[in-house]
Amino acid sequence: MVQLAAQLLEVKLSLQLFHLLQLVIQGKLFCQIFPCPSLSQSLANEKLQNFMSTFKTLPKIHSEKGLITLTFGICLTISLVGCSPPEEHIKCSSGNTDCTISNAYGSFPDRSICRAAEAVYPRSEEELIAIVANATMLKRKMKVVTTTSHSVPKLTCPDGENGLVISTKYLNRIVNIDKSAMTIVVEPGVMLRKLIDESAMAGLAIPYVPYWWGLTIGGLLSTGAHGSTLWGLGPAVHDYVIQLRILTPSGAGEGYAKVHTLKTGDAELNAARVSLGVLGVISQVTLQLQPLFKRSITYEEKSDSELEDQVSTFGKQHEFADFNWYPSQHKVVYRIDDRVPSSTPGNGVFDSTGLRPAASLALATLRGTEDSQEFTGYAEGKCASAVASTSLFETTAFGLTNDGILFEGYPVVGYNNRMQSAGSCLYSLEDNLLTVCPWDPRVDGLFFFSSGISISLSKAKDFIRDVKQLVALQPNGLCGLDLYNGILIRYVTASSAYLGKEEDSLDIDITYYRSKDPMAPRIYEDILEEIEQMAVFKYGGLPHWGKNRNLAFLNVIKKYKNAKEFLKVKQLYDPLALFSSEWTDQILGLKDGITIVKEGCALEGLCICSEDIHCAPKKGYFCQPGKVYKDARVCVHLTS
């Protein structure tokens, strides 16, 4: 008890220091929300030295957990001098030719390099028409690339090295807002944050959106991105599309390009709502909005002993409900989130703790610690890190403040536009990489796998029970998940989109350590592999189109009852498959090869092991059946 009290005191001391520094540095409050001026390298270094001097005056940290907590605090609750925004993801060696394309994380699931012969940056629909027409005439492969490129799989890669990538960077205008009709018309490159802000200025709201605002409208529609609710039309932005203009290849008689205007009631709109980018280029989107409203949020921690009985009812009780499950700590944090009358006092802000600018130095310390734990097999160390991480998230109210500055207690009430999404690391000014988004590949920061799988509500209870059985068999096996804020579980509803959700479901988001060495197994490799296979195959889960490792997409198209209707529209709009690629053909069931069978392939989720060589036998990892889901084949560490 004395040791626990000392550790909690360390957490509080750390948090007090971080908050003080946030208020003092540059005389600014929350630089991560309101960008600070860009600093010269010399001044930035001076600020860093001042910070380190302050750091040395802290009471000595006597435990590993305390040191980890302090590092997490530096990393997650302070923005030293602003933040370096993400780099461009299209890089060309000669003007706009000879290009490579990456995603926000700097690596695709198979670690391949995506190349294109040329990149173009249209600024209008007219320019877009000319680009598509010319490429169609030349029978040239095309892919659309967004500004932030947050999809994990290779959706933006054209086949071969002679393709064309079309950036939506400058197709970023708000075309029209109709207050009386409560609609907004936007171009595909408009960022989610801009959509939210512009709608709010007109007294309107898009009610449900992804929690990360660093997505473009075109990108989030194409991958089916969503928020969390079982209410109304559901949490997917694509279900609020009432009109969409999409540009597709065409024949010589139509000038090699054609603009389709699709409206509610048009069957083809159900294909275009979630298109994976294979139908053409979206040029304009009209969304149905609602009057701006306030919401009230409270995070409540409980034991996970009754979680399986709560999942089916909690989402029906609260409009924006979700929860974070920490299996290794046997606890769950429920997000009690509802609309309230606009007269309710409160001006709260949600600036998600994990999406703020993070100090590069602290990120390197965290990554180095986890690399060391993985290399030495120090599971207990990962569990200590996990407790420290979740303590920080909870103590900082996950990024909520009652007035945009301080968190003083629940509930936090504020307008929807200030509470529904976050990502302050994306918009701050350049600070020479002193602070970055935590996953920025330019620094030695977070490098992880990201899995998102939707499981039918009717099956969710049994899935949670199975995961609990794994925890009982291997108590330290899921500390690695808790380290990344546990399992985020959101609610999603059935959609009319052909490639949208098939039924009301729980969306399971899992983030976990990925080694820079593709041949290096993880601690308790088998536990996470079993959960992944259990979700996808035993419970028939649908993978998020913009996340996941290769194996999650095995035979995925067979799970969609309207897959044939989608493929008919694809053939109609792009008969030459100019907007398709090897990857999209594979996930749509048009070509084999979604798994890549080679030495160590199971470690990266490129395959399901069937032989020991698919794991890491020289390091003691062998292909074995699962512990709970016996049909799973996973890489197990066997000791002699």
UniProtKB/TrEMBL annotation:
Entry EC number(s): 1.1.3.8
Domain of life, source organism: Eukaryota
PROSITE patterns noted in UniProt: FAD_PCMH (PS51387)
Catalysis: reaction(s): L-gulono-1,4-lactone + O2 = L-ascorbate + H2O2 + H(+)
Gene3D superfamilies on file: 3.30.465.10, 3.30.70.2520
Residue ranges of domain FAD-binding PCMH-type in the record: 112-292
Transmembrane annotation, as ranges: none
InterPro entries for this protein: ALO_C, FAD-bd_PCMH, FAD-bd_PCMH-like_sf, FAD-bd_PCMH_sub2, FAD-linked_Oxidoreductases_BP, GULLO2-like_C, GULO_Plant, Oxid_FAD_bind_N
Sorted UniProt keywords: Ascorbate biosynthesis, Oxidoreductase
Family per similarity comment: Belongs to the oxygen-dependent FAD-linked oxidoreductase family.
Protein name as it appears in the record: L-gulonolactone oxidase
Organism, scientific name: Coffea arabica (Arabian coffee)
Recorded name of the encoding gene: LOC140021369
